[in-house]
Each structure stands twice: as structure tokens, then as C-alpha cells.
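During the second year of the project, the team shifted from modelling isolated chains to modelling whole assemblies. The rationale, set out in the original proposal, was that interfaces cannot be judged from single-chain predictions alone. As a representative example for this report, we include one of the complexes processed in the last quarter. Its constituent sequences, exactly as entered into the pipeline, are reproduced here:
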Amino acid sequence: MVDFTREEREAVYRAIYARRDIRRFRPDPVPDDVVERLIDAAHHAPSVGFSQPWDIVVVDDEETKLEIKDIASRAIAAAQQGYTERKEDFGKLKLEGIEESPLNVCITCDPTRGAPHVLGRNTMREMDVYSTCLAVQNLWLAARAEGVGVGWVSFLYPHEVREVLDIPHHVQPVAYLCIGYPEGGFPEEPVLQQEGWRERIDVEELVHYGGWDPAKEPDGSVEAASD
Amino acid sequence: MVDFTREEREAVYRAIYARRDIRRFRPDPVPDDVVERLIDAAHHAPSVGFSQPWDIVVVDDEETKLEIKDIASRAIAAAQQGYTERKEDFGKLKLEGIEESPLNVCITCDPTRGAPHVLGRNTMREMDVYSTCLAVQNLWLAARAEGVGVGWVSFLYPHEVREVLDIPHHVQPVAYLCIGYPEGGFPEEPVLQQEGWRERIDVEELVHYGGWDPAKEPDGSVEAASD
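Output from the structure prediction step:
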């Protein structure tokens, strides 16, 4: 019944547990055949009504990367204004590796793909974007198995990314990913945990049996962890 | 540099390529230790600002499943009204396995987790929901490696699901998953492809180099494939 060997099963879990959000990259390129495998892995994600709403825009030229980095720099500066106590900590975090990573990839969602009747996108209209996120995670895990690091940059103004990459107005940029070999390898723990930003929540606090349990109190804040 | 063996890497790709959206289940339960591993895999997804915004509501009692199934039946009947030409085809599709599957799981997104300052959820407010979707895909791939099938039911009214499962108003039900051993094993192809609903798009039509290429014309419609 279970058609994966124990070793195969463990390899899948290993990719899941050893995957990290990478922000520091070595400059050496990711070989074309590896990039092709990552993209094909993304394309084999589940999608609502088998609509496959994603497109993948590959960016490796310095000029375009610098334009995207400029957007990120302004979005990061804007976010920093929202912090008071942790403003200094925030300033120390490395939040993107757009320029250093040899490859950037923007994964988008086209809501017109397979429309008007996308099977299953009826009462939950956002299912196409959800499908696009599933494709991102396929790519991320495949990359980990290839020894390739991925970092998702969300400090961006999506409408500006759209303009820089000539993405049509009806198509939504969902994920902007930096891709390359991680400098110093894959960290043992998530970077934000290493830096003391937040802790991993005890999984038991997140699981509810039969219905929502209001007694659960998940908290990954560092204050709570150290008090 | 690449720390996965060839066999380990292939196992990860195998999970990605052999994963299916399952709607027909055997009644035998998924052992508790397997369920725990699936949930822990979900919990090790990347999340914006390491916020871990997901909760996991586990449902295995008949009464609750029937309440959810009633919601799905109405959402499916509503969707069918939108079809004209393919109304009959639509009626033949099996769209959910809520009752048959031994286990249902609702994965939610709590936007207050780690708030007010969730690192990276500034200019892209939906990053918490995107993170929740990444958790779904971790669970889905881990399940495949365990020989366990998963089907995402999107024919649901999320506000009704919230009510049935006592989920607080501020928490968003993102994914309702049916989980169990697939009846007849995992299909070779996606179910909707097998049923002639849509075709897989040629991946080359989805990849753009340097910026959006308007010449690409992805189309997975069956009309296009057979014309």
C-alpha cells in the first residue's frame, strides 16, 4: 500500500525539515538543467480545476535585478517606520538577496487561465492564488533536494514588480524568489529564529480536535519565550 | 555542496510528480503516528516573519463530516448552475470525499498571530494566507510519501465551515482537506485530466525569460487540445 520505501519517505521529510528561507547566496550560477527541474516541479503542483494559473518569469540580468532591489529597499524602509522597540533589531536583519542571488524568479497568478468556469473557484475565489502558492512550495522543496537555496521577498510593491517585468495588468505577481547556492550552507534553524526574532511554536498548540479549542494559546514571540 | 544523494533527490521529485488530488478513499483509518507526521510537516512550512499563522482542525466524527458535506453539496449545486455546455460533464465529476475519507483537516490562517508587526507582511498583506498554503503543500507531499491521499475541497462556503468547526471570526478557513488511503491507489494522471476536463499545459508556454513574453499562449482547455 505504501509505495515509498522508508528511505524515500525520509528523504521527503528531510527536504521539508531542512528547507530554509535563504538570504545569503554565493554568486555561482544554478545550472540550466537544475533550473528546468525546479520550474517543472512548480508546474506539477495541484491547481483548482487543473487550471495551472501560474507563469514563471525568470530574471538573471543585473539591470532588472537592481530595479527590483530598489523597490525592495523602499518597501523595507517603509516597513521600518512601523517599528518602535524593535526598530534597531529590524535594521540588522538581512531581508533579501535579490542582487547576490544568481537567479530571481517571479511566480504569478493569471485569473483568466481556464476562465470563465474554473472548476472549484466558485465560493472560494482565491483558490487560483492558493494554487500558485502550492507551486512555490513544490519549487522550494525541489530546490532543497538540489542543494539550492530559495528566499521569498515580500518587501515589494507588487504593482511596481509588474511594471518592471512587463507583466500584464490582470496577472498578479504572487511570489518573488531569490535562487542560488546558499553562502555557508543551509542554517540548522530558520534565520529569524537564529536571530532571536521569533521562536517555533509548539505544534500541539496549533492542533484542534473535533472543532476549535479556545484553550490553545500559540505564541512564538521571543518575549513570551524568555519571560 | 549538494547534500542529498541522487536517490534522496529522486524521492522528493517522485513525491512531487506522483502526488494527486484524491476524491475516492478507503475507509480504513490513517494511523495516529502518520497523522502526527503530516501535521508536523505542515508546521515546518516557511511563513512570513516566521509567524506560523496556521491552525489545524482535525475532524473524524461522522456528524461533523455530514454537516460539512451538506455545505459542499449546496456549493456544488450552486456551481453547476453556472455551466451550460459542460453541465452534464460537471454533474459526473466526483468533487469531494468528505464522508468517505476517514479524516478531514481544516487548515486556517490567523492574521493576529505575531501581529501587529509581522515581518514582511507590509506591502503584501496576503502573505499570511500564502504561508498557510505552503503548509498545505508540505502536508500533501508528506502524505504522498506515506501512501496517504489528500483532496482539497473548495466547493464550500468558508463562513459556514467556520461556524460548524467553532473557528473564531477573525480566523480564516483556507484549506479543507479530505485525508485517507486512496481507493484503487494513486491515479497515473490528475483526475481532471483522466476525465477529459482539462489537459496539462506545456511548461514551456509558462516560462518567460527576462520579462513577460506576450507570445506565450498557455492553454489547457480540452477544446484546444482536440481541435
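The CA atoms of residues 121 and 127 of chain B lie 6 Å apart. Strands of chain B lie at 54-59, 103-109, 149-152, 172-180, 207-209.
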